[in-house]
Amino acid sequence: MFDLAEVDLSRVYVHGGSPVEHVTRVGKHKAIGYVNFSPSPSERFRPPEINLRQIGEMLESRGMRVYYDGGPSGRGHQQEIVDLVRQLPPVRYNRKLRPAHSFSVDTPLLPHTLIAADPVTIERLLEANREALYGFPPTVDAFVDLIRTVWIDHKSPLGELIRLAFLHYQLYGGREIPRLFEPEQPEPSQPTAGHNAVSPAAFVHELANLTKRCEQQLARQRAQLKQIGRDITDAYENLDAYKTIRDHFRAARERNRVVRLVGEEERLLEEQEGLITELRRVADLTSRYAELLQRL
């Protein structure tokens, strides 16, 4: 395994199963993504070369966190992770209970990894689902150390939380942060006898809260419509690009067909010229034969 400090990040090769779009879309369509890379080409890491340093700087300029992972030595929160997995309930496989986690094994075949994360969205997701963390720090740094150190089964609440973080569009476009656990509702207070009427002040307060919730819902819907509009625009742009490529290939096929027809025409002309030459030779022989007959 190559030392990450010696790798020229401006000239690396990306794994075919983790394209660069998995990180360039972070902060726009997804909250976290990763890409595996290698300093030398191989069957799994094929050309072209990618300037991963430039991509990382672009992500950091947008406020994203970028992590270069080359092995367990640079990972933090290891004791917290051990304490966390000890508390995870087992999951059922084929009617048997199995542990819901497995630690990553550092082998020479393990590639280097660039991980990009949207810290605001990730920490909002973690704060909204503290019950799944069992006291684990709800920070983006701790979360990244967790996912690159241990695999969590998606059947557990923590595994479902990790799956949500990696989904496209699930946490963007004005959507509410999903909660895996319903928040506890306070017990309704019982009014005393003779005090069932709602006071004007309470009515005004409730009306203000209702108005605020309606405005928030309207703002979320506007954001969702704006995101849908951007998605539709992207779809039209992709369709136009597809049409351009299709027309290009169609024109290329027509050009190849014309070239073949011109070649066929030239071949026929050459054959015709050969036949004309042969006919002239036969005519000349016939003329000589006629002269010979006259002399006889």
Termini gap = 100 Å
How large, in whole angstroms, is the Cα Rg?
36 Å
The fraction of residues assigned to DSSP E strands is 5-15%
Number of strand elements:
8
The chain-level mean pLDDT equals: 84
- Determine the number of helices (DSSP H or I, runs of at least 4 residues): 7
Report the uncertain regions.
191-198
The major β-sheet equals:
4 strands, antiparallel
List the helices and strands in order: EHEHEHEEEEHHEHH
Residue share in helices?
Answer: 40-55%
Secondary-structure content class = alpha+beta
Bulk shape: elongated
- Strand order, biggest sheet? 1-2-7-3
Short key terms for the protein model shown above:
296 residues, alpha+beta, 7 helices, elongated
Structure characterization notes:
The chain has 296 residues and is of the alpha+beta class. The protein has a domain of 177 residues. Helix content is 50%, strand content 11%. It has 7 helices and 8 strands, in the order E-H-E-H-E-H-E-E-E-E-H-H-E-H-H. A 4-stranded antiparallel β-sheet has the order 1-2-7-3. A hairpin with a 2-residue loop joins strand 4 and strand 5. It starts with 12 loop residues before the first strand and ends with a helix. The relative contact order is 0.09. About 3% of the residues have low confidence.
